[in-house]
Design goal:
Blueprint: H1 34-37, H2 40-43, H3 64-69, H4 72-92, H5 98-108, H6 114-127, H7 130-142, H8 155-191, E1 196-201, E2 204-210, H9 211-236, E3 238-239, H10 253-263, E4 266-267, H11 278-305, E5 312-313, H12 333-346, H13 349-354, H14 367-394, E6 396-397, H15 399-407, H16 415-424, H17 429-446, H18 450-455, H19 458-461, H20 466-472, H21 476-479, H22 482-490
Parallel strand pairs: 3-4
Antiparallel strand pairs: 1-2, 5-6
Helix pairs in contact: 4-5, 4-8, 4-10, 5-7, 6-7, 8-9, 8-14, 9-11, 9-22, 11-12, 11-14, 12-14, 16-17
Length: 493
C-alpha cells in the first residue's frame, strides 16, 4: 500500500498518460493566420487542456522527479490519503463505523490511472467542482460506505492540505539540489583559494581578490538560501482539517491532528477554512531569493567570460556550436539561460504576496494563482539549481588571464596601500590622496608604470624611500586574510 509522506525526499515515477500533456492531433494543426484569428468560431476547434492538468514549465526546463509532484496521479493520491486518514480518525472517535473506514482503504486504495483520472474529468464537466468529482469517482469504487467519506470536511481541507504536501515534497527536492550546488561551490572554492584575480567595483579594477574567495562568497549566500528554504518548508508543512470557516463545528480537532501526523505535517493553529497565505508568500519569497542568488552567480560568470576579460568560461563541449553564422563563437548560453529562469521564479513572488489578503474567512482568488506558480516556480528552480551545479563543476578557470588583467593597469591596484603608507609617514590624508591620484591618472593616460611614477615624484619620495614603495607592491598583502575568511565560511583554513 503506497503512502504519501513528507518525511523524506519525494521521488516518484509517473507513467505517461492522458494527463502528461495536452492531447492534440498533429494532423489537424491550429489555425493561426491573421485572416481567421478574429473568427471566434475557430477557437472552438482548439483542443482544451484537461481540468486537472496543472500548468507547468515546458519539458525543456523540467526534471521528472519535480514534475511528478504536480501530476494528477500524485495530487489525487494525496487527496485520497487525506480522506482515508480522516475516516480512520472518525472511526476511532466513533463518528463513523470502523468497517466504513476499512472499506475506504480496501476498495478505494487503487492507483490513479489515466482511466480513473478521465472519469474524474468527466464528472467535473458536469459538477464544475473538482473535489466533488473526485469524491463521486471514489464512491464508485467504495460503494455504500462512501457516504461516510468527507464527514465534516470542506474542499479547502483537501486542497490546502494537499498543496502543503506538494510544496513540502518540492522543498525536499530543492534542498537536495542546493546541497549538490553547495558541494560543488566548496570544492571549486578550495581549488582556487589562492588563485589571485582582479576584484572590481562598478565593473572597474579595484583591488586583488582570489577566485576561491569569490566562490566562497557565493557558497555562503546559497547556504543562507538553504536555511531560508528549510524555514519555509517547516512553515508550509501545515495541515487544515477544520471544516467550514475553520471552527471544527462538524469535525473533531483530533481528526486534523491524526491526518497531520500521517502526512508529516503540523496542524494549522487557526485555519479560517484555509491555511493563511502568509505561509505560502514566505515560501515563494524564499524561492525568489534563491533565484536571485542564481542570477548573481550566473551574471558573474557571464562577465568573466567576456572576450576582453576571459578569466573563466562555461565548458564548451566537443561538437558544440556557438553561432549559426559565426563559427568562432563560445557564448555563455547556460548562464544566460539561468538569468532568464531566475526571472521566471521571481515572477511568482508578487502574486504570492497578493494572495495573502483574502476576503473574510476565505475566497478562492488565490487558487488560480497557485495552480500556476506552484508547479512553475518549483519546477523552474529545480532545473536552474541543477544546471548551475553543472556549470560550477565544469567551469573553466584561467589563472594566467587573471594575472594579465591584474597587470594591465601597471600596478594601480596598489594605490590604496600607497595612500595609507603616506598618511602613516606623516602626510595629511588630503595631500596623500592628491599625490597618489595625480600619478594614478597619468597611468590611465600613458600606460606607464605606477611604481616608476611614484619613485619619480618628489613629494612622495620625501615621505617614502624607493625600497619602501617597492615593498608596498606585494600581492601577498591582499591574500593574507584569505585563510581567516575561509575559516569563517567553511570551518577550515
Amino acid at each position: 500500500m503506497v503512502r504519501v509522506s513528507t518525511a523524506a525526499p519525494f521521488d516518484v515515477k509517473v507513467s505517461p498518460g492522458a494527463h502528461s500533456r495536452v492531447d492534440h492531433n498533429p494532423a489537424t494543426p491550429f489555425k493561426a493566420s491573421l485572416s481567421n484569428w478574429a473568427n471566434r468560431a475557430d477557437f472552438s476547434k482548439l483542443p482544451l487542456p484537461h481540468p486537472h492538468l496543472e500548468t507547468r514549465m515546458i519539458p525543456r526546463y523540467s526534471r521528472p522527479s519535480m514534475t511528478a509532484i504536480w501530476e494528477p496521479t500524485n495530487k489525487f493520491r494525496i487527496w485520497f490519503e487525506i480522506e482515508a486518514h480522516a475516516c480512520d480518525a472518525q472511526a476511532e472517535l466513533g463518528v463513523i463505523p470502523r468497517q466504513a473506514a476499512k472499506a475506504v482503504w480496501d476498495k478505494g486504495d487503487k492507483p490513479y490511472t489515466a482511466e480513473r483520472i478521465a472519469r474524474i474529468d468527466e464528472i467535473e464537466r458536469e459538477t464544475h467542482h473538482d473535489v466533488i468529482a473526485f469524491l463521486t469517482e471514489l464512491a464508485e469504487h467504495v460503494g455504500g460506505e462512501a457516504r461516510f467519506i468527507h464527514q465534516g470536511l470542506t474542499s479547502s481541507d483537501i486542497g490546502d492540505t494537499c498543496l502543503a504536501v506538494q510544496l513540502t515534497q518540492a522543498a525536499d527536492i530543492l534542498l537536495a539540489d542546493m546541497e549538490a550546488l553547495l558541494a560543488g561551490l566548496k570544492k571549486r572554492a578550495l581549488e582556487h583559494k589562492m588563485t589571485v584575480c582582479m576584484g572590481r567595483s562598478h565593473g572597474i579594477h579595484a583591488e586583488p581578490v582570489t577566485f576561491g574567495l569569490k566562490l566562497a562568497g557565493f557558497y555562503a549566500e546559497f547556504r543562507r538560501g538553504r536555511e531560508r528554504l528549510r524555514t519555509a518548508r517547516r512553515e508550509i508543512a501545515t495541515c487544515a482539517i477544520s471544516g467550514a470557516v475553520g471552527t471544527f463545528a462538524n469535525i473533531d480537532p483530533r481528526v486534523e491532528e491524526h491526518v497531520a501526523k500521517k502526512l508529516g505535517l503540523t496542524p494549522e493553529p487557526v485555519s479560517t477554512q484555509v491555511i493563511p497565505r502568509d505561509r505560502h508568500a514566505a515560501f515563494f519569497a524564499a524561492l525568489g531569493v534563491i533565484a536571485s542568488s542564481i542570477e548573481r552567480l550566473a551574471t558573474e560568470i557571464r562577465h568573466l567570460q567576456r572576450t576582453e576579460v576571459r578569466e573563466a568560461e562555461e565548458f564548451f563541449a566537443p561538437g558544440q556550436k556557438g553561432s549559426s553564422a559565426m563559427p568562432h563563437k563560445r557564448n555563455p548560453i547556460l548562464t544566460e539561460n539561468l538569468t532568464g529562469l531566475a526571472r521566471m521564479v521571481r515572477s511568482a513572488v508578487v502574486p504570492a504576496l497578493e494572495n495573502v489578503a483574502l476576503w473574510h474567512e476565505r475566497d478562492i482568488s488565490h487558487s488560480s494563482v497557485e495552480r500556476m506558480i506552484g508547479p512553475d516556480a518549483t519546477i523552474t528552480l529545480d532545473f536552474a539549481l541543477a544546471r548551475l551545479a553543472g556549470v560550477v563543476e565544469k567551469l573553466l578557470v584561467y589563472p594566467d588571464a587573471m594575472q594579465r588583467n591584474i597587470d594591465r593597469l601597471g600596478g594601480l591596484v596598489f594605490s590604496q596601500r600607497v595612500l595609507l603608507a603616506l598618511t602613516q609617514a606623516g602626510m595629511s590624508r588630503e595631500d596623500a590622496y592628491k599625490a597618489v591620484q595625480r600619478n594614478a591618472m597619468e597611468v590611465w593616460k600613458s600606460g606607464k608604470s605606477f611604481l616608476d611614477l611614484l619613485r619619480a615624484d618628489g613629494e612622495v619620495t620625501a615621505r617614502l624611500e624607493a625600497k619602501e614603495l617597492t615593498a608596498l607592491f606585494d600581492m601577498g598583502y591582499h591574500t593574507r586574510q584569505v585563510d581567516a575568511i575561509f575559516e569563517r565560511v567553511f570551518g577550515e583554513s
